[in-house]
Write a structure and sequence with these properties.
The complex is a heterodimer. Chain A is mainly α. Chain A has helices at 26-35, 42-58, 64-75, 82-88, 93-100; strands at 2-5, 8-11. Chain A has a single domain, classed as DsrC protein, C-terminal domain (Arc Repressor Mutant, subunit A). Chain B is globular, with a radius of gyration of 14 Å. In chain B, β1, α1 and β2 (38-43) form a beta-alpha-beta unit. The chains are: A mainly alpha, B alpha/beta.
Chain lengths: 110, 130
């Protein structure tokens, strides 16, 4: 599968995750969100950039439990819980947020 | 619930690249850690190369998964045991290894003698070799 943006094709897996996380751009994230009829606000971008930073450091996409723990360290408790993340990413925080962030699909995850 | 908690030890005996064992073992550790078992990882024989500092597998078209060991304390994997003898046999010291800081800033990478490793293995419910 591919995602098209400005005439350029970006290979994705069958669930729409970018094959090469290096190809990611904010425009690509916006395009993915748009296709899901979702608008990205500052809180979405904050989560997306935390995920990208996590991937750059550890070379994996974190499962939800680990993501919440990690966000707690970065942002404090009120932004580090399941309800908050589900509100931002109703299709499943790890899956939807990781996809927008250009990361591979987290293993064993919602 | 405590009786359901098993002590699981993963033993890595192979070099990081060239075969898929090391990467597969890491995947299993990450998946298993989600079930809140008491997990430790051992690096033995050529397995000690997996923790070598300054890897550049990009030239092999491989991802540098040594970075992922750094995430293990967050997965409640608090001990990465390195067999000291294997390290010495390969002309390496602790300084050649990556550091894996735990939350309290101590290093999860822990050198262990072969004798201590044997008794530690005896205490496990499950020992899986890769």
């Amino acid at each position: 599968m591919t995602l098209e943006l400005d005439g350029k094709m970006y290979p994705t897996d069958p669930e729409g995750f970018l094959v090469d996380p290096e190809e990611w751009s904010e425009d690509l994230a916006r395009k993915m969100a748009e296709d899901d009829r979702c608008e990205l606000g500052p809180d979405h971008w904050q989560a997306i950039y935390i995920l990208r930073e996590y991937y750059a450091q550890y070379a994996i996409a974190p499962p939800i439990r680990i993501l919440i723990r990690h966000m707690g360290k970065k942002l404090g408790r009120e932004k580090a819980n399941s309800p908050y993340l589900y509100e931002l990413f109703p299709h499943g925080p790890a899956k939807q947020a990781c996809r927008y962030a250009g990361l591979p699909k987290p293993t064993g995850c919602i | 619930m405590d009786s359901l908690k098993k002590r699981i030890m993963y033993v890595n005996r192979r070099a990081p690249y060239g075969t898929v064992y090391a990467l597969e073992a890491l995947d299993v550790v990450l998946a298993g850690a989600v079930f809140e078992q008491e997990v430790s990882v051992v690096f033995l024989d050529d397995g000690v190369y997996q923790l070598r500092r300054g890897q550049n597998p990009a030239v092999l078209n491989m991802k540098d998964f040594s970075k992922t060991f750094g995430a293990l304390p967050d997965f409640d994997v608090m001990y990465l045991y390195v067999d000291e003898e294997s390290l010495v046999q390969r002309g390496m010291t602790a300084r050649d290894l990556i550091e894996v800081p735990r939350e309290d800033d101590t290093d999860a990478v822990t050198l262990i003698s072969s004798t201590d490793l044997s008794s530690l293995m005896d205490q496990q419910d499950v020992v899986l070799q890769f």
